[in-house]
Amino acid sequence: MLLLFILIFFVSTAVFFGTYKLWSYLQLSSFLDRKINQLWQRAPDKLKVVVERYLVLKFAGNKAHLSFFVWLLLATISAATSIINREPLVFMLFALVLLMVFNKRRTLWLKRNKTLVKELPDFCDLISMMMASGVPLILALEKVTDSCNERLLASEINAVVQRLRRGNGFDASMKALSDGCDAKPIKEWVTMLVKGHQQGASLTKPLRFFAHQLRQELLNSAEKRAQEAPVKLLFPLVTCFFPVNFLVILGPIILQMSQGGFT
Domain limits at 12? Predict the structure, then answer.
């Protein structure tokens, strides 16, 4: 049975590398990318939001295809092993690994939202400064994106600018940014920009006030987490740290007393 499993493993590995080499030789990546993009454009908007929100599928180059083949190899090995052993344990383990991957994607999504919120006050200040000097809103967004292209929020605003260049409306482009982020400050900021753009009102003072208010909220949240830290550390200290110390201190005394007391 062990030899058969090893044989299946090596055959699956050979199939994997052979398929990957054939994939690279035929240059199927660009063809499938076009087909996937066509299917993605036809997909419902709600499905797009769910996929972008919970999976955070942002691969570069052939990493996405390599990841696909790695999972295909794991699935092949798991299926072959479970069929041979006639037990669902391997499938359960494989499902557990998938759940871990999805949980990691969810964690990355939450971390991404926090990063966007932290970067938002600085972007509000920069946009308000440019608009105060007479720069229009859309041009201000483009200039801020060019000057802060290493920031995560800059990439999101750059996507908005690219949609505007393709002829999409400002409201729809900003709504796509809002739908792609599950953070209340981002949604409020998008709503403020859309209303200001529709009404033609000045956004200099509202952006400054919003940036100041958001910084204060982030500061209050950090202070709250700092105050909750001792309470959260209490349970690990009581259950893990203190018993070990008591064992080190009282252990020799108890052993000495059990062996006849002190001389």
Answer: 2-33+42-87
Residue 51 lies in a domain: yes
pLDDT digits (tens, 9 = 90+) for 16-68: 667 666 666 666 556 666 666 677 677 776 666 666 555 544 433 333 444 45
167 & 125 share domain:
yes
Among the candidates 201, 218, 235, a domain finishes at: 218
Total number of domains in the chain: 2
By the 8 A CB rule, do 170 and 197 touch?
yes
> Same domain for 131 and 78?
no
Residue 134 covered by a domain: yes
How far apart CA 73 and CA 75 sit, in angstroms, is 5
Tokens 């060019």 locate to 146
Indicate left, alpha or beta for 146 from its phi (over 0: left) and psi (-120 to 50: alpha): alpha
Residues 52/100, Cβ–Cβ less than 8 Å: no
CA distance 225 to 232: 10
| Rounded CA separation 74/80 (Å) | 10
Would you tell me how many other CB atoms lie within 10 Å of the CB of residue 210? 20
Q: Establish if 213 belongs to a structural domain.
A: yes
At 107-156, the pLDDT tens digits run 777 788 888 899 999 999 999 998 888 888 889 988 888 888 788 888 88
Q: Determine the length of the chain.
A: 263
C-alpha span between 91 and 68 (Å, rounded): 18
Is the overall model pTM greater than 0.70, yes or no?
A: no
**Do 117 and 55 have their domain in common?**
no
Alpha carbon distance 77, 83 (integer Å): 10
